[in-house]
Design goal:
Blueprint (H helix, E strand, L loop, with lengths): L2 H13 L6 E7 L3 E13 L2 E11 L9 E5 L5 H15 L8 H29 L1 H6 L2 E8 L5 H14 L3 E7 L2 E9 H13 L1 E4 L5 E3 L3 E8 L10 E5 L3 H10 L3 H7 L6
Parallel strand pairs: 6-11
Antiparallel strand pairs: 1-2, 2-3, 3-4, 5-7, 5-10, 6-7, 8-9
């Protein structure tokens, strides 16, 4: 971590010092750092809006813009994506200088303008089409893990991430096959991937903490009408391939199973 980034993080931690205000998620000399900032924007659409902003600063930051993920219970997925796009636009104006605090100040001042045009439409959708809106914009992610050495700790970490990001699905074990199937807002899916790639979730052969370097993204797609929505996140073990296949079939994911799971056995 460069001294410039270290100083910026220290300043952010001091500014956003309330509980949950600034949380360091991962730090690496090769992958950069990831942290979450929570801010509240007052008097927007007659309610306070809590924004959860995840920043991943690559090793060549600030010469490169950060990766940004935006979540909010008060905004729709589309509005969160609009906020993210605007933040990235602003980030390009601050290349080669620490920018995170400036980006946060900018969105606090301009959030109302960013979501103004879509707010009315989204409110109408929520009121008139609860069933349809609940399904709209939900994404699905299927991951394959090569192994888990510290299984108990690894499983607890995955469960915590899924809970924090309000993701549902399954962590599935069948013989040597380990799969993670997640459903949720696309921004939360993206945030999960950042955590999975940058956090020390396992141990190496020497027992030292290490990051997941043997993960494969098998599929990332929008949930379709024929797919069943998982109501919670569960860890499950299967004795046979047929049991695992039935789990996919019950969720309307037969094609997903056929395309990605049998090749893992070869």
């Amino acid at each position: 971590m460069s001294e410039l980034v270290r100083e910026e993080l220290s300043a952010l931690a001091a500014i956003y010092c309330e509980p949950g205000g600034c949380e360091l998620l991962a730090a690496s000399e090769t992958d950069g750092i990831s942290f979450r900032i929570q801010i509240t924007v007052k008097e927007l659409l007659d309610t306070d809006v809590l924004l959860k902003l995840l920043f991943h600063l690559p090793v060549n930051y600030p010469s490169t813009v950060p990766d940004i993920s935006v979540n909010s219970d008060q905004l729709t997925r589309a509005q969160c994506m609009d906020v993210k796009d605007k933040l990235l636009e602003q980030a390009k104006k601050h290349l080669s200088e620490p920018m995170v605090h400036d980006l946060i100040l900018w969105i606090q001042q301009h959030l109302k303008d960013v979501i103004k045009q879509s707010a009315t439409v989204c409110n109408e959708k929520t009121t008139l089409s609860k069933g349809a809106s609940a399904e709209d914009g939900i994404w699905m992610l299927l991951l394959h893990l090569d192994h888990m050495r510290a299984k108990a700790k690894y499983v607890k970490t995955v469960e915590k991430w899924a809970s924090d990001l309000r993701l549902t699905g399954r962590l599935m074990f069948m013989g040597k096959i380990i799969l993670i199937l997640l459903q949720g807002d696309r921004s939360s899916i993206k945030e999960y991937l950042i955590l999975q790639k940058t956090s020390k979730v396992d141990v190496n052969s020497s027992g030292k903490k290490c990051k997941e370097k043997m993960m494969s993204v098998l599929c990332e797609t929008e949930v379709q009408s024929q797919h069943k929505r998982f109501q919670k996140f569960e860890v499950k073990e299967y004795s046979t391939l047929k049991e695992l296949q039935k789990e996919f079939e019950t969720a309307g994911l037969t094609a997903l199973f056929s395309e990605f799971v049998p090749p893992l056995l070869k």
